Amino acid sequence: MANADDIIRHPVEIPLEIKAMDVAVDNQLTHKLVGCVQLTFHFPMMIAVGVLLTVSIPSINAQEELHGQVSSLSQSKHGFMIGMSFQSEQEAFRMRMLEQLCHIEEYRQRILLSEGRLLSQDQAASEWIDQYAAVFPVLS
């Protein structure tokens, strides 16, 4: 299980597209998961640990589709919290980069609502990096 500091919680304001691909037949895939960042997000229905998923974030990068496996499941007030791990360091790194872009966009929206400042993507990225990049989960 990932350390709490290694978990990226996907911002609920940024929609994910999730497709179930298959179920791992005998936990072989679980043993192949790399020790890396675990993505956690809200999902409206229960999904079994071991299910292979395809994840995309069209509002951030419509062409990027990443593959991983459900590694944990817990109930939350918004449905279920799905923990997703990745089968290669490259997939995990790409997901981490997309998640940083999601967190920057969430920051840009939050600043607009709370302060009334309309930041460009570059301005939001610069401010977010200064404030949060040092504590954003890294590959382990």
Please mark out the parts with pLDDT under 50 across 5 or more consecutive residues, or reply none: 25-31
Oligomer: single chain
Write the CATH architecture name. Beta Barrel
Q: How many discrete domains?
A: 1
The largest sheet has its strands arranged as 1-3-6-5-4-2
The CATH first-level class comes to: Mainly Beta
CATH topology: Thrombin, subunit H
SS summary, helix count? 3
| Major sheet attributes | 6 strands, mixed
Q: What string gives the helices and strands in order?
A: EEHEEEEHH
Structure described in brief:
This protein is α+β, with helices and mostly antiparallel strands and 140 residues long. It has a single domain, classed as Beta Barrel (Thrombin, subunit H), CATH 2.40.10. It has helices at 28-32, 89-115, 121-132, and strands at residues 7-9, 17-23, 38-43, 51-57, 61-76, 79-86.
Structural notes for this entry:
The chain is of the alpha+beta class. The chain has a single domain (4-134), classed as Beta Barrel (Thrombin, subunit H). The protein has 3 helices and 6 strands. Strand 4 (51-57) and strand 5 form a beta hairpin. Helix 2 packs across helix 3. The longest helix has 27 residues, at 89-115. It starts with 6 loop residues before the first strand and ends in an 8-residue tail after the last helix.
